[in-house]
Design a protein that fits this description.
- The chain is mainly alpha-helical and 208 residues long.
- It is built from 7 helices and no strands.
């Protein structure tokens, strides 16, 4: 049986769905249990997905390189500020502002989601590693950012499951790992913007 090909909008929806569900989970969980960590991560993911959706939709402008360059630079700068705001949930993590009940089943689900995100990021990176297309590079960067944030979320989840009280050793571990993750995210974002000035003259091809 040959299935019908997906439209561009359907392809975008499929790519955004896992992240959207993850954002909804964090938002609902944060509201129900009054967890600032989950609320902030939920808001962050919604903003990140909004930028991703705009970039994915922008590939249809392949015949207008000038418009694509404006789209890339605008979304890249916006992505930088969104990623910089990730410092807020990181502060909540370090301050242990997440004293809520956390079932082991949910932790296993988050671990599965993290594994999925990291695996798909690596697969997509291998496919696009030689591309000089600006928007393709931006999508790859966003996927890496999603993977790093999902790893930080998994770290926070495991701490919530296994630690009932504040632990100074874990506080230090959270601080170091979160700082490394944030620096990696900001580095990827800045590098992407720098790439704009070095390869912006290249023709942009539609995303596949």
């Amino acid at each position: 049986i040959k299935l019908p090909a997906l439209s561009q909008k359907e392809k975008i929806s499929v790519q955004l769905l896992p992240g959207l569900l993850f954002a909804l989970y964090n938002g609902i969980f944060g509201i129900v249990f009054r967890s600032m960590w989950h609320i902030e991560i939920g808001i962050y993911y919604v903003l990140l997905l909004a930028v991703k959706a705009v970039v994915l939709a922008g590939f249809r402008l392949s015949e207008k390189p000038g418009a694509l360059k404006v789209l890339f630079f605008t979304t890249a700068v916006l992505l930088f500020f969104i990623n910089a705001a990730l410092i807020l949930p990181i502060i909540s993590m370090i301050r242990y502002e997440r004293d809520v009940p956390f079932p082991l089943k949910i932790a296993i689900g988050i671990a599965a989601y993290t594994t999925y995100k990291v695996t798909m990021t690596v697969v997509r990176f291998v496919k696009a590693r030689k591309s000089t297309d600006l928007l393709t590079r931006e999508i790859v960067t966003i996927r890496f950012v999603e993977s790093i944030v999902s790893i930080l979320t998994l770290q926070n989840t495991l701490i919530m499951v296994n630690t009932a009280t504040e632990d100074e050793g874990l506080r230090i571990l959270c601080t170091v790992s979160s700082a490394v993750g944030l620096c990696a995210i900001l580095y990827l974002t800045v590098k992407m913007i720098v790439d704009y000035f070095s390869i912006s003259k290249n023709a942009l091809k539609p995303y596949k």
